[in-house]
Amino acid sequence: MAAGNEKRRFHGTKIQCSLGLNGNTEICPSPTCAVCRIIETSFILPAHSNKAHFLRFGPGIYFSSVSSKSNDYSTPINGNKYMFLANVLVGEGEKYLNDNQNITSPNPGFDSVLGETGLALNHDEVIVYNIDQAKPSYLIIYS
Ligand SMILES: [Zn+2]
Asked: What spacing in Å lies between the alpha carbon of 20 and ligand 1's midpoint?
Protein backbone atom coordinates (compact mmCIF):
# COMPACT_ATOMS: atom_id res chain seq x y z
CA MET A 1 0.00 0.00 0.00
CA ALA A 2 1.31 3.47 -0.88
CA ALA A 3 1.78 5.97 1.95
CA GLY A 4 -1.64 7.26 2.96
CA ASN A 5 -3.17 4.61 0.70
CA GLU A 6 -2.77 7.10 -2.12
CA LYS A 7 -4.74 6.19 -5.23
CA ARG A 8 -5.08 7.67 -8.70
CA ARG A 9 -8.75 8.41 -9.40
CA PHE A 10 -10.88 10.16 -12.04
CA HIS A 11 -12.99 13.29 -11.49
CA GLY A 12 -15.21 14.54 -14.31
CA THR A 13 -16.42 18.11 -14.21
CA LYS A 14 -17.74 21.06 -16.19
CA ILE A 15 -15.89 23.62 -18.26
CA GLN A 16 -17.03 26.90 -19.76
CA CYS A 17 -14.04 27.83 -21.89
CA SER A 18 -11.69 26.33 -24.48
CA LEU A 19 -8.71 25.63 -22.24
CA GLY A 20 -6.25 23.27 -23.90
CA LEU A 21 -7.67 23.72 -27.37
CA ASN A 22 -6.19 25.65 -30.30
CA GLY A 23 -3.17 26.63 -28.25
CA ASN A 24 -5.20 28.15 -25.41
CA THR A 25 -3.23 27.55 -22.21
CA GLU A 26 -4.72 30.37 -20.11
CA ILE A 27 -7.29 29.55 -17.45
CA CYS A 28 -10.43 31.67 -17.72
CA PRO A 29 -11.79 33.95 -14.97
CA SER A 30 -15.32 32.53 -14.84
CA PRO A 31 -16.30 31.63 -11.26
CA THR A 32 -18.46 28.81 -12.63
CA CYS A 33 -15.79 27.21 -14.84
CA ALA A 34 -15.03 24.23 -12.62
CA VAL A 35 -12.01 23.03 -14.62
CA CYS A 36 -10.22 26.40 -14.39
CA ARG A 37 -11.09 26.86 -10.72
CA ILE A 38 -9.70 23.38 -9.88
CA ILE A 39 -6.49 24.17 -11.77
CA GLU A 40 -6.27 27.50 -9.94
CA THR A 41 -7.00 26.37 -6.36
CA SER A 42 -7.35 22.56 -6.42
CA PHE A 43 -10.56 20.79 -5.45
CA ILE A 44 -13.01 22.46 -3.09
CA LEU A 45 -15.88 21.08 -1.08
CA PRO A 46 -19.38 21.74 -2.39
CA ALA A 47 -21.67 23.76 -0.14
CA HIS A 48 -23.98 21.47 1.82
CA SER A 49 -26.85 23.79 0.96
CA ASN A 50 -26.19 23.34 -2.75
CA LYS A 51 -29.13 21.20 -3.80
CA ALA A 52 -28.39 21.70 -7.48
CA HIS A 53 -26.51 18.41 -7.46
CA PHE A 54 -27.39 15.08 -5.95
CA LEU A 55 -24.66 14.34 -3.41
CA ARG A 56 -25.00 10.62 -2.70
CA PHE A 57 -22.62 10.73 0.24
CA GLY A 58 -22.97 14.36 1.26
CA PRO A 59 -20.77 17.37 0.56
CA GLY A 60 -17.44 15.74 -0.27
CA ILE A 61 -15.20 15.59 -3.31
CA TYR A 62 -16.06 12.59 -5.48
CA PHE A 63 -13.71 10.37 -7.45
CA SER A 64 -13.87 6.99 -9.17
CA SER A 65 -11.47 4.40 -10.51
CA VAL A 66 -13.86 4.02 -13.46
CA SER A 67 -13.47 6.75 -16.06
CA SER A 68 -16.92 6.09 -17.55
CA LYS A 69 -18.42 6.87 -14.13
CA SER A 70 -16.59 10.21 -14.01
CA ASN A 71 -17.62 10.81 -17.62
CA ASP A 72 -21.22 11.17 -16.38
CA TYR A 73 -20.15 14.40 -14.61
CA SER A 74 -18.24 15.83 -17.54
CA THR A 75 -20.35 18.24 -19.60
CA PRO A 76 -19.23 18.61 -23.21
CA ILE A 77 -18.45 21.99 -24.72
CA ASN A 78 -18.01 22.12 -28.48
CA GLY A 79 -17.86 18.33 -28.47
CA ASN A 80 -14.98 18.13 -25.98
CA LYS A 81 -15.12 16.83 -22.45
CA TYR A 82 -12.76 17.32 -19.53
CA MET A 83 -11.75 14.99 -16.74
CA PHE A 84 -9.06 15.18 -14.09
CA LEU A 85 -6.87 12.32 -12.98
CA ALA A 86 -6.15 13.06 -9.34
CA ASN A 87 -4.03 11.70 -6.55
CA VAL A 88 -6.35 10.93 -3.64
CA LEU A 89 -5.26 10.04 -0.11
CA VAL A 90 -7.84 7.38 0.67
CA GLY A 91 -6.32 6.29 3.98
CA GLU A 92 -8.71 4.00 5.81
CA GLY A 93 -11.91 4.00 3.77
CA GLU A 94 -15.35 3.57 5.38
CA LYS A 95 -17.47 1.37 3.10
CA TYR A 96 -21.08 2.10 2.17
CA LEU A 97 -23.40 0.12 -0.10
CA ASN A 98 -26.35 2.51 0.14
CA ASP A 99 -26.76 6.27 -0.24
CA ASN A 100 -26.28 8.40 2.84
CA GLN A 101 -26.69 12.06 1.96
CA ASN A 102 -26.24 13.15 5.60
CA ILE A 103 -22.54 12.29 5.73
CA THR A 104 -20.33 15.32 6.32
CA SER A 105 -17.18 13.35 7.18
CA PRO A 106 -16.18 9.73 7.70
CA ASN A 107 -16.77 8.24 11.14
CA PRO A 108 -13.89 8.30 13.66
CA GLY A 109 -11.12 5.93 12.62
CA PHE A 110 -11.74 6.48 8.92
CA ASP A 111 -10.27 8.94 6.43
CA SER A 112 -12.62 8.67 3.46
CA VAL A 113 -15.90 7.16 2.31
CA LEU A 114 -15.95 4.31 -0.21
CA GLY A 115 -19.12 3.84 -2.22
CA GLU A 116 -19.08 0.13 -3.00
CA THR A 117 -20.82 -1.51 -5.93
CA GLY A 118 -23.60 -4.03 -5.52
CA LEU A 119 -26.70 -2.13 -4.38
CA ALA A 120 -27.00 1.60 -5.11
CA LEU A 121 -23.83 1.95 -7.17
CA ASN A 122 -22.77 0.44 -10.47
CA HIS A 123 -19.24 1.85 -10.18
CA ASP A 124 -17.04 2.54 -7.19
CA GLU A 125 -16.63 5.99 -5.67
CA VAL A 126 -14.22 7.42 -3.14
CA ILE A 127 -15.22 10.59 -1.36
CA VAL A 128 -12.98 12.82 0.73
CA TYR A 129 -14.16 15.67 2.94
CA ASN A 130 -10.79 17.35 3.46
CA ILE A 131 -9.43 19.29 0.50
CA ASP A 132 -5.87 18.35 1.46
CA GLN A 133 -6.60 14.71 0.57
CA ALA A 134 -6.89 15.30 -3.17
CA LYS A 135 -4.71 16.98 -5.75
CA PRO A 136 -5.37 17.22 -9.49
CA SER A 137 -2.49 15.64 -11.41
CA TYR A 138 -3.57 15.44 -15.05
CA LEU A 139 -6.29 17.07 -17.15
CA ILE A 140 -7.69 14.79 -19.84
CA ILE A 141 -9.47 16.41 -22.78
CA TYR A 142 -11.43 14.01 -24.96
CA SER A 143 -14.36 13.79 -27.31
ZN1 LIG B 1 -12.34 28.00 -17.89
From this structure: 10
Looking at the domain 3-142, which fold is it? Answer: Phosphoenolpyruvate Carboxykinase; domain 3 (3.90.228)
Å from CA of 132 to ligand 1 middle: 23
In the chain, where the domains are located:
3-142
Question: Whole-prediction pTM value?
Answer: 0.92
Q: What is the 3-state secondary structure (H, E, C) of the chain?
A: CCHHHEEEEEEECCCCCCCCCCCCCCCCCCCCCHHHHHHHHCCCCCCCCCCCCCCCCCCCEEEECCHHHHHCCCCCECCEEEEEEEEEECCCEEEECCCCCCCCCCCCCCCEEEECECCCECCCEEEECCHHHEEEEEEEEEC
Condensed to tens digits (0 to 9), the pLDDT of residues 34-75 reads 999 999 999 998 776 556 677 889 999 999 999 999 999 998
Ligand 1 center from residue 32 Cα (angstroms):
8
Query: Distance from the CA of 58 to the center of ligand 1, in angstroms?
Result: 26
